Amino acid sequence: MSGAARVGLTIDGRPVEAAAGASVLKAAEAAGIAIPHFCYHPGLEIEGNCRMCLVEIEGYPKLELSCSTVVREGMIVRTSTDRVRAARKDVLEFLLAEHPLDCPICDKAGECLLQDHYGLHGRYAGRMAEVRERREKKIPIGRGLILDRERCVLCTRCVRFLRQVTRTGELGVFERAVGSELGLAEGRPVDNDYSGNLVDICPVGAITSEDFRFRTRAWFLDRRPSVCPRCARGCAVVVESVTGYPLAAGERRVYRVTAGVNPAVNGHWICDLGREGRREIDEGRLGAVLRKGVREPGLAWPGAVAGIAAAVRSVPAAERPGGVAVVLNARLTSEELALARELFVAGLGLRNVFFAGLKPGRADGLLLTAERMPNGRGVLEAGLSPRPPALEALAAARVLIVFGPYLTEHFEAGALGRALAAVPAKFLVSAHAGPLDRLFDAVLPVTVPAEKAGTYTNIDGLRQGFSRAVEPAPGVVPEGAVLARLARSLGLDIGDADAR
Amino acid sequence: MPVSPNGLEVLVRRYRGRRRALIQVLQDIHDRYRWLPPEALERVAEALGVPLVQVYGVATFYKSFSLTPRGRHVCTVCLGTACHVRGGAAVLEEFERRLGIAAGRTTSDGRHTLERVNCLGACALAPLVVVDGHYHGQMTPVKVGAVLAAAAKDEAA
Ligand code: SF4
Ligand code: FES
Ligand code: FES
Question: What ipTM score was computed for the predicted complex, to two decimals?
Answer without folding.
Answer: 0.81
